[in-house]
């Protein structure tokens, strides 16, 4: 067991303990027992339905082989090519109709995984940058992060619900009970957020490293992160704002549009991530992506674009 895996296990155990502790504060030993069984049931439910839940929350649509949009079909084909290059099972590929550039991966294991990119990401990034982002998401799948991240989102959301439940019924126990309920409603979600943050930050750095190896070009992911960071800061993602417990699943925090209630950063500094990727590129160990040294926007004889896309600064969907 690696240190990263052990730390993740300990953090998930802490999140489960926090859930049970909230149950105890609400209903004593009986409340703790009920919370334990609820947590166990939620974990089992998340194991089998994590991908469906998160994809439905964000209105994701699967791209099938008979997709009529040529550019979306190419995006899916490129993602599948990256999975093949990494020697991993082919995930289901989705698109989310929102202008904020972002992406995430979900699923209980590599054999039952899904990756999704937003239309905002596809319209702002070059095809090679999109490949870098999807390689990052495939790295999460390969590292088996997706189940951990989804279970974390489920438990964190449930802790917030229980805390609000305690606040609603706190007034029935007099002034002391009301004060305790208010404190619980404030600090329990904050503690859950800290656990989410700790899990996500370590995972993001590792996914950047493995994703750069899959794509064969750390700089394509570095350039993509710069564009996504700018876009996420300026563009609202309504589905993410409605489901803040899933924020840590995205490649860049999606709650930066108009989300004033985002108290904790679930991601490491984008500048630090880019710096690490540039160090990796400087090591000179990367032969180029699966499309060759020029990347997927390479041109054929006479300078003709062989992919049907644009070699400019925007994506083929822009």
Number of strands: 4
Q: Classify the helix fraction into a percent range.
A: 55-70%
Oligomer: single chain
What is the overall pLDDT average?
77
Anisotropy-based shape: globular
Trace the largest sheet across and list its strands.
Answer: 1-2-4-3
- Beta-strand content bin: 5-15%
Contiguous uncertain segments of 5+ residues: 171-176, 257-264, 289-313
Order of helices and strands: HEHEEEHHHHHHH
Distance between the termini: 44 Å
What would you call the structural class? mainly alpha
Discrete helix count: 9
- Specify the biggest β-sheet: 4 strands, mixed
Radius of gyration: 21 Å
Explain the overall architecture.
There is one protein chain. With about 325 residues, the chain is mainly alpha-helical. The protein has nine helices and four strands, in the order αβαβββααααααα. The protein has a four-stranded mixed β-sheet with strand order 1-2-4-3, sandwiched between helices. A hairpin with a 5-residue loop joins strand 3 (about 105) and strand 4. Helix 4 crosses helix 7 and helix 5 (about 145-170) runs antiparallel to helix 6. The longest helix has about 55 residues, at about 5-55. The protein is globular and about 55 Å long. Residues about 170-175, about 255-265 and about 290-315 have low confidence and may be disordered.
């Amino acid at each position: 067991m690696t240190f990263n895996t052990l730390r993740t296990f300990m953090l998930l155990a802490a999140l489960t303990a926090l859930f049970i502790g909230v149950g105890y504060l609400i209903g004593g030993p009986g409340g703790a027992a009920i919370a334990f069984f609820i947590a166990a049931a939620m974990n089992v439910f998340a194991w089998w339905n994590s991908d469906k839940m998160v994809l439905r929350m964000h209105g994701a649509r699967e791209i099938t082989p008979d997709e009529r949009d040529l550019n979306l079909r190419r995006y899916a084909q490129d993602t599948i090519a990256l999975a093949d290059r990494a020697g991993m099972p082919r995930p289901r590929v989705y698109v989310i109709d929102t202008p904020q550039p972002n992406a995430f991966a979900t699923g209980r294991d590599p054999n039952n995984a899904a990756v999704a990119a937003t239309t905002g990401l596809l319209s702002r990034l070059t095809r090679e940058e999109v490949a870098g982002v999807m390689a990052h998401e495939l790295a999460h799948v390969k590292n088996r992060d997706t189940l951990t991240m989804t279970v974390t989102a489920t438990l964190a959301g449930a802790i917030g619900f229980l805390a609000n439940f305690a606040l609603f019924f706190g007034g029935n126990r007099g002034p002391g009970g009301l004060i305790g309920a208010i404190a619980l409603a404030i600090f329990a979600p904050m503690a859950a957020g800290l656990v989410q943050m700790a899990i996500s930050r370590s995972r993001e750095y590792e996914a950047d490293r493995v994703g750069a190896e899959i794509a064969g070009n750390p700089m394509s992911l570095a350039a993509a992160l710069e564009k996504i960071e700018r876009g996420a800061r300026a563009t609202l993602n309504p589905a993410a704002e409605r489901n803040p417990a899933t924020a840590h699943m995205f490649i860049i925090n999606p709650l930066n549009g108009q989300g004033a209630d985002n108290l904790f950063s679930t991601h490491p500094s984008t500048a630090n991530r880019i710096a690490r990727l540039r160090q990796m590129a400087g090591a000179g160990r990367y032969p180029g992506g699966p499309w060759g040294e020029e990347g997927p926007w390479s041109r054929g004889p006479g300078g003709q674009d062989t992919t049907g896309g644009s070699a400019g600064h925007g994506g083929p969907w822009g």
